[in-house]
Design a protein that fits this description.
Helix content is about 0%, strand content about 50%. The protein has strands at about 10-15, 20-30, 35-50, 60-65, 65-70, 75-80, 85-90, 95-100, 105-110.
Amino acid sequence: MNVTNLEHLEKQEIALEGAKNVIKQVPISKDHGSPNFSFRVFTILPNGHTPFHTHPFEHMNYIIDGEGVIVSESGEERRVRKGDFALILPNEKHRYKNTSTTDPFIMICAVPKEYE
């Protein structure tokens, strides 16, 4: 059994091209003994966004706090907010964007452990 708290986890700033004001924490991964999944927590600061990207597998997201949009490859924006779940299908190009100028947008992203 492994129990952890976000307040005690290292915060890593994402330095990928196309990312702006994104912080990652990893509370559960293969390093913690997880046999299948990694749970990452992304905090997207005001006016920040993840890069446009794809994955060869689905990933599941839960919005912990704040609100923002998921932007599709065509530019369509799908609003998400605290309490929402999102499923991103394999190879679906997307970006998460914080639409607030004052509040962080915080989400859990669950992926296969091999990806982390």
